[in-house]
Specification:
By secondary structure, the chain is an all-alpha fold. 73% of the residues lie in helices and 0% in strands. It is built from 8 helices and no strands. α5 crosses α8. The longest helix is centred in the last third of the chain and has 27 residues. The protein is globular, with a radius of gyration of 16 Å. It starts with 7 loop residues before the first helix and ends with a helix. The relative contact order is 0.16.
């Protein structure tokens, strides 16, 4: 009998979608308290995106954090330095890729640290916001930020795991 591999991100998306707006709001508030630097970064992006796109970014962070928690992996508080490092790295990678190719959906997947997670969260965002109506080039900023959020949260979770194994 083969073990069935769990898709914690897909489960976290389904669980989040099944929550009432009040429950989702409570979860967002909890993440705001636990991750003030990460959520402050996302909050500062509000003017750069439509309300529905910004909401999709907030939801993506909450969903990804919850998927790690469901897998038994804590996500330590994200430090300022990590946010800055990842943003700079992602912008550099995207700019380098843009010089060589067009930034199509597949090119973005090539750049992402976690293409499957990126694809799941991007597809949810397209469904939940007005991103589907925009041209691929117009989605570039959203893709860069979403990819950066995923990397920031994953690196923070990895740091939590390293602390656990060192203890």
């Amino acid at each position: 009998m083969a073990l069935k591999k769990k898709d914690y991100v897909a489960e976290a998306i389904a669980d989040y979608e099944a929550m009432s707006p009040k429950e989702q709001g409570q979860l967002v508030v909890q993440i705001l308290e636990d991750q003030p630097i990460l959520m402050g970064f996302i909050t500062n992006l509000a003017d750069d995106f439509t309300d529905s796109e910004h909401e999709a970014l907030v939801d993506s962070a909450v969903i990804l954090i919850n998927s790690f928690v469901a897998a038994g992996i804590p996500v330590q508080m994200v430090p300022h330095q990590m946010v800055e490092e990842v943003i700079n790295e992602k912008v550099e990678n995207y700019d380098r890729k843009a010089e060589k190719d067009e930034l199509t959906g597949t090119a973005v997947l090539d750049i992402s640290d976690s293409p499957l997670v990126f694809e799941d969260l991007k597809n949810r965002a397209i469904f939940k916001s007005n991103l589907a109506e925009k041209m691929e080039a117009e989605r570039h900023s959203f893709n860069v930020v979403l990819d950066a959020l995923i990397s920031i949260i994953e690196r923070s979770a990895a740091a939590s795991m390293e602390k656990k194994t060192d203890a």
